[in-house]
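Worked example (supplementary).
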Amino acid sequence: MGQSSRFEKLEAALDLIRAACIFVAAVALVVLIATFGWLVFGRYVLNATPTWVEQLALLLICYVAFLGAAAGIKEDTHLGVSLFRDMMPFVIQKVLLIATDFALAAFGIVMLIAGITLMQFGWDTLLPMLDIPESFRTLAITSCGALVTLFAGARGVLRILTFSDWQPVTQELEI
Amino acid sequence: MGLMILLLVFGLLVVVGMPVAFAMGIAAASAFWFEGFPMLITFQRATAGVSVFSLLAIPFFVFAGEIMLHGGIAARLVKLAAALVGHLKGGLAMVNIFSSMLFGGISGSAVADISALGSLLIPVMKERGYRPDFAVNVTVTSSIAGIVIPPSHNMIIFAVAAGGGISISKLFLAGVIPGILMCLSLAVAAYILSIKHKYPAEPFPGWREVGRSAADAIPGFITAVIIVGGTLSGVFTVTESGAFGALYALLLTKFYYRSLSWESFVLAVTGAVRTTAMVMILIAFASSFAYLLALYQVPTKLSGLLVSISDNPIVILLMINVILLLLGMIMDMAALILICTPIFLPIATGLGMDPTQFGIMMLVNLGLGLCTPPVGTCLFVGCAVGRIKIEEALKSIWPFYLAILAALILVTYVPAVSLWLPSLLG
Amino acid sequence: VELRGWNIHVEDYPVSIAMESFMEEVTERTGGEITGQIYHNGVLGSQPDAIEQIRLGVIDFGEFSLGPMGQSIPETNVVSLPFIFSSIPQMYELMDGEVGEAIGAGMIEKGIVPLGWYDAGARSFYNSVRPINTPADVEGLKVRVMSNDLFVGMVEAMDGNATPMAFAEVYQSIKTGVVDGAENNPPSYESTSHFEVAQYYSLTEHLIIPECLCMSLKTWETLTPEQQTILKEAGHASALLQRELWQAREAASMEIVQAGGTIVNTIEDKAPFQEAMAPVYDQFLADNPDLADLVNMIRNAE
Ligand code: NA
Ligand code: NA
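After joint prediction of all chains, the assembly is encoded as:
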């Protein structure tokens, strides 16, 4: 979507946050693969299976999923059905896009609050084998909620502020 | 009433273009709110939905596929396919299908298949006089075979959705013949069209060249052998096999082929993160959605309804297939596997169908859904790679639909197609 | 009120039958004021999720193993100590008495009210390599255990290779040799078909982990004292029924596995195993000094 240069700094900041999400998720993925190598090495070569790998992996995958999904909001890569929206006149399409942004932002807030509650609730439940609070898993939800609100909310606001400057386009998938 | 809210909110959001994963999440949160539950259950279910050990194989398979794409293994597989089947009528279409059989066999991701092979083959096909829509359609439909040829992360999602009682090894073996069958059936369709449109055959490069490209491609193909072989032999669990396949592909492209630069490694990792996140977030919110369906006892009621319409197994299986095809048009595979398996699997096993066969049937069916509008990820990606409009592709895609449907019917009504190989090696 | 019940088992399992009988009795004795719907087969989620949901009041009642509860309620972890109960009848007696009271108090603090203590039998080791008669027989075996420091510690104390692994992967993993064996009670050993791939079943009976029919404290607090009394009495009555059904089920399972070729051996002398567990107990008491009284209450019981 095109917007005037006065929002360039905001866009750059949002993009930095998006890149940070992808970076953290990518590190989590690489660690995940490396620890599984260590798991098999431990079981067959050392005959002592590292017992923390399974639980750590289950923790890391939450970050890959939820941070990656939040970045996907910014990158607009989530799967959706635009067919019906595309059949509408441009003005309605634009209103629908803005409404979708704000619905997502609102959902992000619910997610954020739920995440915080789950974190408080899970503080005295320990993840087996890792002995850290369950809250570290739900932190992924909390962060995802905050990021979804930020990305979708900012896009909605920008779309309103620049309402006459942009046209919805059928999305070209980047390969 | 709660069920109505769940379905209405979901339907409305999908129609206005909300991403499907979030549409499921918002619909689930609304229904929980309506029932007087804390809305945070939505997210507790979502987290629980992705924190499943077997699902860890997904990022590994996806990563292995990305490394193959960016590290040059895909290109070598295409060269091998070209040497082997390029001299047939419509040679490049055959090469396209055969490459999918080899490549899809490893990544199990149809989208990775299309981006990898499509970007290599579609331009060449256009240059050699193939119609762009034909090139795109061959690419898109043949990528579906990779979903049933092992390894495949969608098989793992199915095994998880079925409650963990289904052996992944058996699913892997069961997918081989249906996958090859799909490719053959697509090859027949492509062959007939090639005769009609007078598409060229490529010159046979000679046995020496076949040998050379095979020698070059085989180390790459071993990635699949590691993943499937590791699982079947029991040296590794599926998850570990996935991790080892990924590590092997990484080391191979870095140190043997020397075709993996730092940039392509970064592309592979971030590509894997994006695909994994997209699949996982669908699984996450589909878990919240499926929880409510179970709470409202939808599976029991729906199966009661189906069985009351007919007690003829052939008719019931037909109805299940039609419902899946319709759902496949509007939703993505991972979410549908999670939602529909608990509903339809008990009906199918009640008719005496083997759960493994049901899984393969479901994957072929929903695979077709990836090539159909309005939600057809593979079709979208294929059209983007081939730079044509979706409407353009749709005009000539029907012979390929028919080819996949033929394979689907065989998988549905002939158990041996899926079960013969596992029975032989089980 | 209509209560929502969670259960992981299939409908004809002893637990499921007892839960249904509990609900029937409650409905009858409250004159239809309290009714309930039990969702079997774990359709409402896995056990750790359901524990969280019962604490949040999304699920009104359910039947849980005390094993996974240990992650959030330390008192319940005491029964996950190997060889803590000397026999099943002793477990019944203690759980129906002051030990059950003490553990129950810890549960109520976290929002879960116990109504009756169910039986899940005793867990024993099985593997595909050799019968286990002494702790030394465990040495070097790759044994799948549930993800819990205590169970990992237990196998490691005998120099085995403890391997936490998803339950669903166990059958294939034993069959193909990823692990050598696992441990469970006879009905699970039989119904999962693990006996087909791990033919040695050694009756170590190392873990006697009771289960619990419980209610959400949030729901509990909305009920009248009379209703609460009825629920408690019906809960205990259903526990007695479940124990009876469980014993029958266990005997049936043992018959099936033995007919299927399983080689069952009993352990003549459990003392060497109990002695080998000393480091597990030491570590546990070092981590949970508050629970020393409870541990001793059980260990010193007749
Ligand atoms: Na595959
Ligand atoms: Na292809």
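Two points are worth noting when inspecting this output. Chain C touches chain B at residues 39, 42-46, 48-49, 52-53, 56-58, 165-169, 171-173, 175-178 (CB under 8 Å). Chain C is about 45% helix and 20% strand.
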